[in-house]
What we know:
The protein contains seven helices and eleven strands. The protein is an alpha+beta fold and about 270 residues long.
Amino acid sequence: MVTRRQGRTGAVLVAAGMMVGVTGCSGGGADADSLPSDPVDLLRRAASTLVRAGSSKARTEMEMATGGTRVTIHGEGVYDYGRQRGRLKVLLPHDPAGRSEHHPITELLAPGALFMKNRGAGVPADKWVRVDTGTLSDGNLVTGGATDPFAAAEVLRGTRTATLVGETEVEGTRVRHYRGTADLTAASRAASEGNRGPLRAAAEGFATARVPFDAYLDDEGRIRKVRHRFSFVNGSRPGTVAVASTTLLFDFGVPVAVRLPRPEDIYAGKVAEE
């Protein structure tokens, strides 16, 4: 089983392990005229706006750098904000020769839990690995190689400072670009029940609870793109790991059906680090 100690010393099950190997539709958004004019207030409400929007497709990108090593992990899938369930296919980075020796990892996201298939040496192909995200020192903001889209939005509940940079476009949609900082401790207090524990763990486990971000919101206050910059101390290697996690949301209102694994489909053995 994956233990709390494994979560803290490894820091990440997918992302940090790769570093060693590498040496739409309109949802029920708010009326634009009713959106708060204060950027801090607007961003703190962004997660609730996604819940009203219902669902969306998502693309993720996670860049990690420590010393002279840099890797990028990509993900794509769908998310239901009301049920807080999502499905992502995560593509791991290629080796130095340009080949990928890893099958894509399928991830199912649920309140307080992360399920992964094709993850870990020795795990049967038909089994899932389940991780309690509240036990991870990064709260699963980094562990899966992709930040849970709703958790990414809930980080903004802890917004302390924010300014409007200007207007631009994301995937052809007009958006307002905001830049600021969020506090993970404050975010955990304001978060939904499912993300409260994981965000609290991240506030304690990261090198700092302060998270710089860039957020791009459309005219209905929905997040179209958000980029967070995290940092943590990797217990197995010296130095601080810098992580830039980007989440893009689009096609709001898309149908989403996520069925979580049955107990008998979850692997109960030890997961080997790759």
